[in-house]
Amino acid sequence: MKMCLSGASSDQARAPQVSIAVIVILLALGGASSAIAQQHISKKYPAGKNVRLQLKNISGEITVESWARDEIKVSATMESPATRFAPRQTSDGLIIDVMGDNRGRAEVGNINFKVQVPASSSVDVETMRGDIHVTNVQGGTVRAHVSTEGDITLSGISASQVIASNTIGNIYFDGDFKKGGSYEFTSNRGDITLRIPGDSAFRLVAVIPSKKIELGHFWNNRFRSIGDGRKYLGDVGDGRSSVTVTNFSGAILFLRR
Questions:
Q1: Whose CA is closest to 128, among 108, 148, 109, 105?
Q2: Are 150 and 127 in contact (CB under 8 A)?
Q3: What's the pLDDT at 84?
Q4: pLDDT at 230
């Protein structure tokens, strides 16, 4: 009797171990199938130094950064294998239109892009939902637009025209204001932070119903507020560039770099 009881006890001890092993295998298979479902695409396109990138995404993160090559590299991770996108090379750059390529499709899923471009490129990127990052671009124009929700981060930017806008999310700009340049930043709900050199010269129009604006180092007695302090106008230095900042629910903050 003792020998039978001992065998039963041994079987019972092994049962939880077998169950755990099965669970681990199932989890591993589930992770593997998820990885297989995602598609990774990477392709290079020849380009000159002054090129234009235009990218229209539906949902997903967009990262654009410069590199020291006369070509554009597009890397993308797609959640849905049915998603289509067909980059089109033009005489002056590259166009990626996820919206157009998937018009009429019900489930497109996220597409996360990483695009590397020559430093002097112009960049025009937008998405319905997702964050946008543009780094070390020094072309003529940088435009970043999120139509619903997502943060916009523009770092190391030296362009004569910058436009950044979103509905919900923060906007962060770290760059230069060029003489004669135009810079527009708009958010419906989120903070807008501009980090610029201490000797920057610009004419500012700031609209902020919440009255939360901090000009810090750039404040001077030439600024005036109108509309019960909801709009600020004024020049910093000789006002050689135009800066418009509009924030309907959030703060506007100027930082000295």
A1: 148
A2: yes
A3: 83
A4: 85
Instruction: Give yes or no for residue 30 having a pLDDT over 70.
Output: no
Tokens 């020559």 identify what position? 118
Contacts of range 216-223, beta carbons closer than 8 Å, 24 or more positions apart = 216/253, 216/254, 216/255, 216/256, 217/254, 217/256, 218/254, 218/256
CA 179, CA 160: separation in Å to the nearest integer?
Answer: 8
Inter-CA distances, 179 with 54, 185, 197, 204, 236, Å? 25, 18, 13, 14, 13
Euclidean distance between CA atoms 12 and 5, whole angstroms: 11
**Total count of residues recorded for the chain:** 257
Dihedral of the alpha carbons of 135, 200, 184, 257, in degrees to the nearest 10: 40
Amino acid at 166: N
Percentage of residues in the chain with pLDDT exceeding 90?
65
Is 108 in contact with 102 (CB distance < 8 Å)?
yes
Alpha carbon 119 to its chain centroid, in Å, reads: 17
47-75 per-position pLDDT tens digit? 887 899 999 999 999 999 999 999 999 99
The average pLDDT across 176-191 equals: 96
Residue ranges per domain, the chain?
A: 38-133, 170-257
Instruction: Give the 3-state secondary structure of residue 145.
Output: strand
Place of tokens 């089109």: 88
Closest CA to 115 of 49, 61, 187: 61
pLDDT band for 105, please (50, 70, 90 cuts). Answer: confident
| Contact present, 151 and 173 (Cβ < 8 Å) | no
